[in-house]
Write a structure and sequence with these properties.
Blueprint (H helix, E strand, L loop, with lengths): L9 H11 L4 E17 L2 E21 L2 E10 L6 H14 L35 H15 L1 E18 L4 E17 L5 E8 L7 H14 L3 E2 L4 E7 L1 H13 L3 H5 L24 E4 L33 E5 L2 E2 L6 H7 L10 E4 L6 H6 L3 E15 L4 E14 L2 E6 L1 E6 L1 H5 L2 E4 L3 E3 L11 E3 L2 E12 L3
Parallel strand pairs: 7-15, 8-13, 12-19
Antiparallel strand pairs: 1-2, 1-4, 2-3, 4-5, 5-6, 8-20, 9-10, 9-12, 10-11, 13-14, 14-15, 14-16, 16-20, 17-20, 18-19
Helix pairs in contact: 1-2, 3-4
């Protein structure tokens, strides 16, 4: 039976697209995604559903006298009948484009084809919530009895990526991604608290523990305290630190640093690799095999731009220390930007881990705080100055005053102005590293493990009316 007479598998689409290629090089990426979700409001489930989709991306390269050009075209719900038009469109885009600045030879095979390259894609469904949903229902009952309202959502996706190239690469990666965000509000909606978690399969998410944490925070809010803007000793939980470190990572391009455009540029030329950024032995690293945060061990990118290159598709991703024991150790590079800067090739990561050797929990750090603020999370983070990586944003869903080792009440929200690079140098204590959900960036980046940290003088630049 021909492909046209039956539904083609992802690997068959990749192989057929490569056969149809008439360019000088070709990379084909098939992404098969399924998604399951739950949503709730006012202590009751409101919606649930499952979706599935397919996207096929063709990257065609055409050699010319002035260099190699590339053309990229992606389409959803592609069938065998639509393959040739997709390939031709990518080749036409390449011929119409000028030489690609980041052009490199396509990656050669460095091992055998993935053993499961021809296997069916992995899928998720509502059964991923088999244990989570009943536990969530029990949390609804407890909240209802105590006069609290729970809102939120849980989402789980599974993406199977098949990558093939005209050089012979045949790679596959299955990526599960799960998040849960839970908001608790007082009956009059005047108080709000948030908790979130990232997961691969929801077997390690405990709604009761999240709900208990939120109940405690709402209780802290029974006493309201107004504080002015200023610099405060501040405890950042793992989620808040993760949002800052993710932005730092996104801003750590090697080429921009060497060319003098970022906080990682050395005055007079070059990068700041080797400079001390933190007094504590802070290490910021990524590792595709990190337990619980597993990610693709090779480059998957659907277009060139910034610190990623379509020509690098399939390139192995190795464990990398970005900051090692407080010193800047590496910056993001493609093969092209590495050649320009003399830096080693360091593809962008899909997980981030911060470890500073601490063992204390956030609660233990609160217990030894004389006076300071305890944050819940950050949001609406925006860049103010790339030269210093100064960011601004707001606190959200609970800022608390700690006095003599105890939380004594909830305070108003603030706008903050902070550089995550400068902040690294003002961390005076780091606790135990744990998996967490970066709230601000959870639509793009979920795989993080961070410690709670104590910052000596976090800059709350103004009072905010945000709730």
């Amino acid at each position: 039976m021909s492909l046209q007479a039956r539904a083609a598998s992802p690997s068959e689409l990749v192989e057929r697209a490569l056969e149809l290629s008439r360019g000088d090089g070709c990379v084909v990426i098939a992404d098969e995604e399924s998604n399951a979700n739950l949503r709730w409001a006012g202590n009751a489930l409101t919606t649930n559903g499952v979706t599935r989709g397919r996207t096929l991306t063709v990257i065609a390269t055409v050699d010319g006298r002035e260099g190699t050009a590339s053309g990229v075209v992606s389409r959803e719900a592609v069938t065998a009948e639509g393959l040739e038009s997709l390939v031709r469109a990518a080749e036409a885009a390449a011929r119409e484009a000028g030489p690609a600045e980041d052009a490199q030879p396509l990656v050669q095979p460095y091992g055998p084809a993935a053993a499961d390259f021809t296997a069916e894609p992995a899928e998720t469904g509502v059964d991923v919530f088999a244990a989570f949903a009943p536990a969530l229902g029990e949390s609804f009952a407890r909240a209802r009895k105590s006069g609290r309202l729970l809102y939120g959502f849980a989402n789980h996706s599974m993406t199977s990526t098949y990558l093939g190239s005209s050089t012979g690469l045949r790679l596959r990666h299955d990526q599960p991604t799960g998040t849960v965000e839970l908001n608790a509000k007082t009956a009059d909606l005047s108080g709000s608290a948030w908790a979130g978690a990232a997961t691969r399969d929801f077997t390690d998410v405990d709604p009761a523990a999240l709900e208990e944490q939120l109940a405690q925070r709402l209780a802290w809010g029974d006493r309201r305290i107004d504080l002015p803007a200023g610099r405060y000793e501040t405890l950042l939980p793992p989620s808040a630190l993760a949002d800052l470190m993710v932005y730092l990572s996104w801003s750590a391009g090697g080429r921009d640093a060497v060319e003098g455009r970022t906080v990682f540029s050395r005055p007079g030329g070059g990068s700041r690799i080797g400079d001390r950024l933190a007094q504590l032995p802070v290490t910021l690293r990524s590792d595709p095999a990190y337990p619980g945060l597993e990610s693709a061990p090779f480059v998957i990118t659907h277009a060139s731009g910034g610190d990623h290159s379509a020509f690098d598709n399939g390139l192995p991703i190795e464990p990398t220390d970005w900051i090692r024991d407080g010193e800047l150790a590496n910056l993001l590079t493609t093969r092209h930007s590495a050649g320009l800067t003399g830096l080693p090739v360091r593809p962008g990561p899909d997980n981030l881990v911060v470890d500073a050797g601490g063992t204390a929990s956030l609660e233990e750090m609160v217990a030894r705080t004389e006076r300071g603020l305890l944050l819940t999370c950050l949001w609406y983070i925006r860049e103010v100055d790339p030269a210093t990586l100064l960011l601004t944003g707001l606190t959200r869903d609970g800022v608390y005053l700690v006095e003599n080792g105890e939380v004594t009440g909830a305070v108003n929200n603030f706008r903050f102005n902070e550089s995550p690079v400068d902040l690294l140098g003002r961390i005076t204590e780091a606790g135990r590293t744990e998996r967490c959900l970066p709230r601000e960036w959870s639509d793009w980046f979920t795989r993080a493990a961070m410690p709670p940290v104590r910052v000596s003088d976090f800059n709350m630049s103004s009072v905010s009316q945000a709730s």
